[in-house]
Amino acid sequence: xxxxxxxxxxxxxxxxxxxxxxxxxxxxxxxxxxxxxxxxxxxxxxxxxxxxxxxxxxxxxxxxxxxxxxxxxxxxxxxxxxxxxxxxxxxxxxxxxxxxxxxxxxxxxxxxxxxxxxxxxxxxxxxxxxxxxxxxxxxxxxxxxxxxxxxxxxxxxxxxxxxxxxxxxxxxxxxxxxxxxxxxxxxxxxxxxxxxxxxxxxxxxxxxxxxxxxxxxxxxxxxxxxxxxxxxxxxxxxxxxxxxxx
Length: 246
Ligand code: NDP
Description:
The protein is α/β, with parallel strands linked by helices. The protein has helices at residues 13-24, 36-47, 63-76, 91-95, 99-106, 113-138, 165-185, 213-225, and strands at 4-7, 28-33, 53-57, 82-85, 145-149, 191-196, 236-238. Helix 7 links the parallel strand 5 (145-149) and strand 6. The longest helix has 26 residues, at 113-138.
């Protein structure tokens, strides 16, 4: 039976590239976005390349939406081989040009607890809740894997300047969340890792970034996803396959 992969936040950017690359490698890919009318055109574009990509709606902060999708996936496929927890926001995508809102996420002076909590919810808690709801389906696969998209901004070791409170804290928290998750999923033989995709040219990363989404994802699959085993669960990997410092 073909391998099944599900990617969150996949209508554009890195999530879209994950869908394209996994489908090119023979997976049936479930391309999810907050709204079905946004997921559909993205999936149709990939179907136009002859790829096996199916659109679904999923807001990762809405557990009823996650449960509904898990039930649909169970009915249609009965298993899940790979879960890519890609959906995320940073201060810029959150603020959408609103300078006051941006400052509430970035600066010590304006920092707003509700903003920090919102980003932690989307970037650190939601991936774990998604994983929890797909745990049973993942156990039905031969070598199930969860790839959480983290960030170098989540590295405490490498933090050399102030500001960026919300995003950095959320991605750092994701590492801790995954460390616990990995222990909880070990009995089910589910491998769960966080990866740093590098600086990537998306709406979030901007045009000056080092990698295209395709370049980043290809490295992540070749150097991390295809090489990891259960012994690596809970680790934080760089796109080149090296361990990234916490
Ligand atoms: P984009 O802003 O292009 O894409 C982010 C995607 O996440 C969007 O499709 C967005 O949906 C989706 N999303 C946000 N909130 C939710 C939600 N509640 N439910 C479902 N989907 C949601 O950014 P990237 O592609 O660059 O980012 C992908 C991941 O990579 C993120 O986790 C990011 O933090 C991480 N990352 C990116 C880096 C970079 O340089 N680009 C560097 C390090 C990490 P919508 O379109 O509806 O807003």
